[in-house]
Automatic annotation (TrEMBL):
InterPro entries: HTTM-like, Sporulation_signal_mat. The keyword Hydrolase does not apply. Keywords: Membrane, Transmembrane, Transmembrane helix. GO terms for cellular component: endomembrane system. It comes from Pedobacter chinensis. This is HTTM-like domain-containing protein. It is a multi-pass membrane protein.
Length: 305
């Protein structure tokens, strides 16, 4: 009897340890995440480079003093650094050019995994400078860009397929705990967003979808008109309810292998729709990249470590 109980107990403990063990899910998570975020930041910079001075300098559309009204106190900002450099005789144009050059170099070093943590931390700092100085221009992509760069800093993303891995010869690190953290974060983001939408009536009756696609600042460059929505009024309603369902059930669906790929495709489709209908190219692209990094397995390395 005692031997049987001991055997059952040992079996239970072994099963529990197997369950709790962090298994390697995707050996390519670190390089994919690092390269994707580095290329995204570089592309984002190139997209705004022509209008950089119009957006973030005193010669722009809105003076920096006005832009800085909404910034968080005691946080560094682009306008504050520029005021110091102006006092030292450095013009705003020179500072803007230097900022973009440094930002671009750091994006390249992040992509190639050279001094990865330094590159990501400095990029995060540079991003915060802009973020704090231009609140009226900010939207969702800026928040998630900050999150992605922060994760590039705390995750050992330079551990594999990088210049750092060639120079420092570090042992391979299991990416699963870090990837799980990203999964949990993404699940919280979508679930809370879906719950928030479900509290009001606007998403259930399609009004939010209808309003969004008719906002002047978000007029699509791809879709000329939405006459189809006028002909079929149920479409905005279906899109609104579909968005709530995708977001609320995101954590549950992503937790199971059988539904994970379907929900990943639905989520990507949701963001492709945002890109096509609202011109939010960078927000949609970044969310797609974060979803792929968290849940798409590029290399199956399932074994206990």
């Amino acid at each position: 009897m005692q031997n049987t109980l001991l055997s059952v107990k040992t079996s239970f403990l072994w099963s529990r340890d197997k369950f709790l063990a962090f298994q390697k899910e995707d050996g390519l998570f670190f390089p994919f995440f690092r390269i994707a975020i580095g290329l995204f930041c570089c592309t984002h910079l190139l997209a705004i480079s022509r209008d950089f001075e119009l957006l973030y300098t005193d010669s722009g559309l809105i003076p920096l003093k006005i832009l800085s009204i909404q910034k968080v106190q005691y946080m560094p900002s682009y306008s504050y650094v520029q005021s110091i450099l102006t006092y030292l005789g450095i013009t705003s144009s020179s500072f803007a050019l230097g900022y973009m050059i440094l930002y671009g170099i750091l994006c390249i070093t992040l992509v190639f995994g050279f001094l990865t943590r330094f590159s990501s931390l400095t990029l995060l700092f540079l991003h915060i400078l802009i973020f704090q100085s231009s609140t009226p221009y900010m939207y969702g992509v800026e928040f998630f860009k900050s999150i992605a760069l922060f994760y590039c800093f705390i995750f050992p993303v330079g551990n594999k397929i990088s210049v750092d891995s060639l120079i420092f010869k570090r042992s391979e690190i299991n990416p699963t705990p870090y990837r799980n953290l990203l999964k949990i974060h993404m699940s919280i983001v979508y679930f809370t967003s879906g719950i928030d939408k479900s509290f009001g009536i606007n998403w259930w009756n399609g009004e939010s979808v209808w309003k969004a696609i008719h906002l002047p600042g978000f007029k699509s460059n791809i879709i000329d008109n939405y006459n189809l929505f006028a002909q079929y009024p149920s479409l905005p309603l279906l899109f609104g309810i579909g968005t709530i369902i995708i977001e609320v059930f995101y954590p549950l669906a992503m937790a199971f292998r059988k539904t994970r790929m379907l929900w990943l495709l639905l989520t990507i489709s949701l963001h492709v729709g945002i890109i096509l209908s609202l011109n939010l190219y960078f927000f949609g692209l970044l969310m797609i990249l974060l979803n792929l990094a968290a849940f798409l397995t590029l290399k199956d390395d399932k074994h206990d470590v």
